[in-house]
Design goal:
By secondary structure, the protein is mostly helical. Helix content is 73%, strand content 6%. A two-stranded antiparallel sheet has the order 1-2. Strand 1 and strand 2 form a beta hairpin.
Length: 145
């Protein structure tokens, strides 16, 4: 039996075909992360860290790459596996969300300034709704036909 909250949330997520679920989620996450980057820059973030004595910038190219690559691999695998097992979509949403949140520790552990650390941590969090909407939208499409 579904709760009212589950029914309301499911009713708001549109049915999405595979390409829209995958590439739409990636595009939405990249756009959101670029907005977060711009806000971080406006707040004084440099998005630079030191690695082996070398100063390296992670924005905006790094933000784009670190959004696209994990989502393309993880969500892409789930989309492909959904041809055989629809249940993989919920598993992917959970695993992807946990990994997105857990990898914030790598950002916090680097020597970014405070504004950059906060903004970069938020970029990890933007992946969660993108993943959930994509996987639930595709799941809905596959179940409803």
């Amino acid at each position: 039996m579904m709760s009212t909250a589950t029914t309301i949330a499911a009713a708001r997520i549109p049915a999405l075909n595979r390409p829209v679920a995958l590439f739409g989620a990636i595009a939405a996450a990249v756009l959101a992360n670029l907005v977060v980057w711009l806000i971080g820059m406006a707040a004084g973030g440099t998005f630079e860290m030191t690695d082996a004595g070398q100063v390296q910038s992670v924005a905006p190219g790094g933000i784009i790459m670190l959004t696209v690559v994990p989502m393309l691999i993880g969500l892409g695998a789930a989309v492909l596996l959904s041809y055989k097992w629809i249940g993989v979509l919920r598993v992917a949403a959970v695993i992807g969300s946990v990994l997105a949140v857990a990898t914030i520790a790598m950002t916090v552990g680097a020597d970014f300034d405070t504004a950059s650390t906060i903004a970069l941590s938020i970029t990890h969090l933007t992946l969660v709704p993108a993943l959930v909407v994509a996987t639930e939208g595709l799941r809905r499409k596959l179940l409803e036909g």
